[in-house]
């Protein structure tokens, strides 16, 4: 067993939570996910154990998790994960047996068995409206029944150094009397207008250009395993830190002439409805990145975004940069797949879009660690800036 704080990562995907917690000084005892491709990516980038398993099976018997990680129940400091809300039902509203089969409740079964000191459950903001808030109430009530002081916090990754306006809800809970508080923001839209909850060293939010301008040399259909430009920002230097190459996952799609015409008619920041009607399609989520702003939310659909200076969608590497995955992190599996197969095969673009941004995860990890150890949360946030070389 480790002498430092420990973490178990469920629904780990490619490993955004795992990477963030490792960078904050945690030892990941084991990570687990259902998807084979997530496991291949995880094992290509981490030294800690990975267990490919269905949460419904682990909920019935956590022993495979304990065996894989070489630990016992009660050894876990923090349990993290983002169980999908699909299939949610409330006890009483439907058959109890059906409710027990939802992923959230199976996750809580594993939580009950592992007895961690703290928990973090991540999900999309839409969970607040499921069954008029019943999903949220169920998480809080069930974890409180297990002895956790749990609250839901709404956080935006742009406020923690990620070049992306990614809004997510995080359910944070502690055993005992530890209060649940919001991690101190390290980045704001205007440093001159710092608000309560920010640290004194606050920086401006990272922008798309600051994140990916050194990768923007690829034209349509081009690929490169080498850097063709020097870093132009502190963020780019951070993403390249300790990695001289090769450049992974940097292949641009080969769009047809009609798609190129559509993309070329869009100004930075434009959406589908800003296009001339003859170029519009039924896809309403299309958005051209603005170089001087954080990106909108990265999703599993790469065609949602257009590069700010190239008439193409971003590469997997560029998407990973916007999610704060460093360049040394390699995504395995197919680059993309057809819509009907995307959920099951979990291609690289989906792995990136599903992930918790590692820097967001690190901000949470440092804050939770400080809370558990009775340390100053402001110092924890400033330590994140120091680690990023942005203090």
Describe what is shown at a glance:
The protein is an alpha/beta fold.
List the helices and strands and how they pair.
Layout: E1 6-10, H1 16-23, E2 27-33, H2 36-45, E3 50-52, H3 55-60, H4 63-69, E4 78-81, H5 96-100, H6 103-114, E5 118-123, H7 134-145, E6 148-156, E7 167-175, E8 185-188, E9 198-204, H8 208-212, H9 234-240, H10 257-264, E10 287-288, E11 305-306, H11 316-323, H12 339-345, H13 348-354, H14 358-373, H15 377-387
Parallel strand pairs: 1-2, 1-4, 2-3, 4-5, 8-9, 10-11
Antiparallel strand pairs: 5-7, 6-7
Helix pairs in contact: 1-14, 11-13, 14-15
Polypeptide structure, described:
It is a single chain. The protein is an alpha/beta fold. It has two domains: 6-201 and 357-387, 3-Layer(aba) Sandwich (Rossmann fold), CATH 3.40.50; 209-354, DNA Methylase, subunit A, domain 2 (DNA Methylase, Chain A, domain 2, Alpha-Beta Complex), CATH 3.90.120. It has helices spanning 16-23, 36-45, 55-60, 63-69, 96-100, 103-114, 134-145, 208-212, 234-240, 257-264, 316-323, 339-345, 348-354, 358-373, 377-387; strands spanning 6-10, 27-33, 50-52, 78-81, 118-123, 148-156, 167-175, 185-188, 198-204, 287-288, 305-306. A seven-stranded mixed beta sheet has the order 3-2-1-4-5-7-6, sandwiched between helices. Helix 1 links the parallel strand 1 and strand 2 (27-33). The longest helix is centred in the C-terminal third of the chain and has 16 residues, at 358-373. The protein starts with 5 loop residues before the first strand and ends with a helix.
């Amino acid at each position: 067993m480790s002498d430092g704080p420990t973490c178990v990562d469920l629904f780990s995907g490619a490993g955004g939570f795992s990477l963030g917690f490792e960078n904050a000084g945690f030892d990941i005892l084991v990570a687990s996910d259902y998807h084979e491709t997530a496991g291949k990516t995880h094992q290509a980038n981490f030294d800690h154990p990975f267990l490919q398993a269905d949460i419904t099976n682990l909920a019935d018997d956590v022993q495979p998790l304990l065996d894989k990680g070489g630990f016992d129940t009660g050894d876990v400091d923090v349990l993290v994960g983002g169980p999908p809300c699909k299939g949610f039902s409330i006890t009483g509203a439907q058959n109890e047996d059906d409710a027990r089969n939802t992923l959230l409740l199976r996750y809580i079964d594993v939580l009950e068995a592992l007895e961690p000191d703290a928990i973090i459950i991540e999900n999309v903001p839409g969970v607040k409206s499921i069954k008029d808030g019943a999903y949220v109430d169920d998480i809080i009530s069930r974890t409180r029944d297990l002895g956790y002081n749990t609250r839901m916090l709404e956080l935006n990754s742009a406020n923690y150094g990620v070049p992306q306006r990614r809004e997510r809800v995080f359910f944070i809970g502690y055993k005992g009397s530890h209060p649940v508080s919001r991690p101190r923001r390290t980045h704001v839209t205007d440093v001159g207008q710092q608000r309560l909850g920010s640290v004194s060293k606050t920086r401006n939010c990272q922008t798309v250009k600051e994140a990916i301008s050194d990768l923007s040399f690829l034209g349509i259909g081009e690929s490169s395993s080498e850097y063709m430009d020097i870093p132009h920002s502190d963020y780019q230097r951070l993403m390249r830190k300790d990695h001289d190459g090769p450049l992974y996952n940097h292949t641009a799609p080969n769009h047809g002439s009609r798609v190129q015409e559509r993309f070329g008619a869009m100004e930075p920041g434009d959406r589908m409805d800003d296009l001339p009607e003859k170029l519009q399609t039924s896809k309403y989520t299309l958005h051209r990145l603005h170089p001087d702003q954080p990106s909108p939310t990265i999703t599993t659909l790469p065609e949602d975004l257009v590069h700010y200076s190239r008439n193409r969608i971003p590469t997997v590497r560029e998407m990973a940069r916007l999610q704060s995955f460093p360049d040394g992190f390699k995504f395995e599996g197919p680059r993309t797949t057809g819509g009907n197969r995307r959920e099951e095969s979990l291609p690289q673009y989906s792995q990136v879009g599903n992930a918790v941004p590692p820097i967001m995860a690190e901000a949470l990890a440092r804050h939770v660690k400080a809370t558990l150890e009775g340390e100053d949360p402001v110092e924890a946030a400033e330590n994140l800036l120091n680690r990023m070389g942005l203090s």
